[in-house]
Amino acid sequence: PGWIGRTVPDVIERVEVLVSSPSRNYVTLRLTTRDGIVGLGDATVNGRELAVASYLRDHVGPLLIGRDPGRIEDTWQYLYRGVYWRRGPIGMAAIGAVDIALWDILGKRAGQPLYALLGGRVRDRLATYRHAFGWDLPALLEQVDAHREAGFENIRVQAGVPGLDVVYGVTKDNTVYEPAGRAAAPAEEIWDTEAYLRSMPGVIAGVREHVGDAVGLLHDAHHRLTPIQAARLGKALEPVGMYWLEDVTPAEDPEALRLVRQHTTTPLAIGEVFNTIWDCQQLIENRLIDYIRVAVVHAGGISHLRKIFALAEVHGVRAAPHGPSDVSPISLAASIHLGVAVHNFAIQEYMGYPDLVHEAFPHAWHVADGHLQPGDEPGLGVTLNDELHHADDYEPAYLPVARRRDGTLTDW
Ligand code: GCO
Ligand code: MG
User: Fold this and answer.
1) Residue 174 — very low, low, confident or very high, per pLDDT cuts 50/70/90?
2) Per-residue pLDDT averaged across 74-100, rounded?
3) Cα–Cα nearest to 363, from 392, 312, 327
4) What is the pLDDT of residues 232-278, one digit of tens each?
5) Alpha carbon distance 191, 196 (integer Å)
6) What is the DSSP letter of 379?
7) Rounded to an integer, what distance in angstroms lies between the CA atom of residue 136 and that of residue 327?
8) What phi-psi label fits residue 176: left (phi over 0), alpha (psi between -120 and 50 degrees) or beta?
């Protein structure tokens, strides 16, 4: 029986915040109701895990006890408006985790997968893209070929830059790439945008030549270019016919993309560091982007993402959420359920996880024929392997910082 219309609704009885480290840090929220239903949420903010864990443990958790888990929107508004100090990555990730967990509970209560509660499927399978990198073109092509052989049709390509020692998204020896380093302080990298602009268009053109026209190629500039540099890169890549060019300029300046837009037809994607619909509004309403990349965890959960995607739908912008390894399999599940139920959802990033992460979060979502499927378990279809989540497994880990050759700190 559902609680709607019941005089005594189910209530949230237990709130647990787990900061675990099954090969990398994750912050997981577990809510348990009086009726014994468990909802899981992801609150991971890469490099700031303990801040969001404290926000949840010390401030949000106590407010959830005794609340009706079915009042998802009211809880969202309560946590958003009720704090007065609204927005920002830590607070919004905490709200996101609660919202994801409440939708999970709703699905389990209903005995339905989340996508069914979101209106049901609008597509049979969800497009995804994988990451390929290589310090040089031959090394990059090896990974591109491996993804194509595994059936993937869209590939993000990142390469090394001559003269630099470290480059975002790439390892020199082509081993597994993980942006955060386990250390007590961030690593420092030297970055040179001009060197990058000299080499990258040629590398990406080389990939296009190798794969032919049918493969979607994506590239992430990681917020490092000035508007005019970004315009130059967009124009240089026009002959390649990119699926998208991501995060060309720093995300807090929407006007920067107007200039880029005026100069190039290369599709633009941005939004992985956005936290609310208000961060997206100007870009979407002015049609300055083609894809909005907000992550379920970092932009206030399923409830808030649906609003962002609805705004985007009106303006012909498509959804393409962030999906690196620092977004946990719980968030990815939420994204995949949205992905099969939201009409203007274009593609889901799937960076993949170390094996231990798959073991730590057993999940019903899966890859089939180079596409993502949510599975049909009730709710999100993710559980926790308790043996791999110990409360105090946190390992200090930080994203790098970048400096220009003259020592000036710049965007990583
Ligand atoms: C992406 C992202 C990530 C980020 C990471 C930072 O497009 O997947 O840019 O690789 O760098 O999420 O924590
Ligand atoms: Mg990115």
Assistant:
1) confident
2) 97
3) 327
4) 999 999 999 999 999 999 999 999 999 999 999 999 999 999 999 99
5) 9
6) B
7) 28
8) beta
Distance CA(412)–CA(394), nearest Å, equals 24
To the query of whether residue 291 is one of the catalytic residues in this protein, the response is no
Q: Are 291 and 346 in contact (CB under 8 A)?
A: yes
- Considering Cα of 387, then 391, then 396, then 398, what sign does the dihedral take? positive
Per the annotation, the verdict on 222 as an active-site residue is yes
Q: Return d(Cα 24, Cα 290) in angstroms, integer.
A: 32
As beta bridge partners, residue 372 has 126, 367
Tell me the sheet residues that pair with 235: none
Q: Is the CB of 324 under 6 A from ligand 1?
A: yes
User: Do residues 325 and 352 touch, judged by C-beta distance below 8 A?
Assistant: yes
> Dihedral (C-alpha) 312, 318, 319, 323: value to the nearest 10 degrees?
-140
Q: What is the DSSP annotation of 329-360?
A: HHHHHHHHHHHHH-TTB--EE-----HHHHHH
- Paired with 244 in beta bridges are 218
pTM > 0.85: yes
Q: Atom 1 of ligand 1 has which residue's CA nearest to it?
A: 324
Among residues 131, 147, 219, 222, the one annotated as catalytic is 222
Residue labelled with tokens 């090969």? 23
Separation between Cα atoms, residue 81 and residue 92, nearest integer Å: 11
